[in-house]
Amino acid sequence: MMDAEVIEQFVRDGFVRIEQAVPADLVDECVRLLWAEIDAEPGDPATWKQPVHWIGHMPQAPFARAATMPVLLDALDALVGPGRWEPRRDGIGAFPLRFPHVEEPDDAGWHIEGAYTPPGESSYWTNVHSSYRAMLTLFLFTDVDESDAPTRIRVGSHMDVPPVLRRYGTAGASGEVLSPLVDTASAHRPVALATGRAGDVFVCHPFLVHAAQPHHGTRPRFLAQPCISPSEEHREAPYADNHGPVARTIRQALA
């Protein structure tokens, strides 16, 4: 799957989509477990009373299996580097379940994902080393088309972010500080939508600028966006002394 052409696509765009990485029967098991977590029924739109339900960690076996499909492990080895990241064998987390709704949630700003919380802080921070985050992934657990609130992605924006982060050094900065800066830095980039079929997985550069959007369709959208953590010896600086695709783009952006 990760041939030279696909790797160069990742280097250029900051993400690739792995089609049908999670088998359909496993997707169905995960979706059933997600519905059980919320006060809503799959066949009754009258029960869809919130525009978004956030679900945290799901440790059940189907989610652990979904996170460790061989095609995903191979992709992460190719992009992050073998031995530099931790497989999520205990499940996955961070599920924004979005529903068609008259209210639109105020969470659609352009941003990058944080990964650590400094002492005395409550929000997630990011630094130029991408400490505590090796990669962002987007797991589609339902079919997602243009009207189903697909994640918006600024194509190539991973190259705009390292110069923004450089000024904050190893300490980094919070999402509140960084979001308007990375928004401005990447505003010239074209936008792609993370659409696809249930079972597709987007493997994304940790500095890719992206945003949610309100749901204007007719069916719920179930998605997970788990962090891929660096292995213990690489947590502070996952891409130091590394020549893989992610490390290469960070160095190019800082040059």
From TrEMBL:
Q: Which UniProt keywords apply?
A: Dioxygenase, Oxidoreductase
In terms of SUPFAM superfamilies, this protein maps to: Clavaminate synthase-like (SSF51197)
Q: Which InterPro entries match?
A: Phytyl_CoA_dOase-like
Q: Which domain of life is it from?
A: Bacteria
Q: Source species, please?
A: Paractinoplanes bogorensis
* Name this polypeptide is given: Phytanoyl-CoA dioxygenase family protein
**Gene Ontology terms, MF aspect:** dioxygenase activity
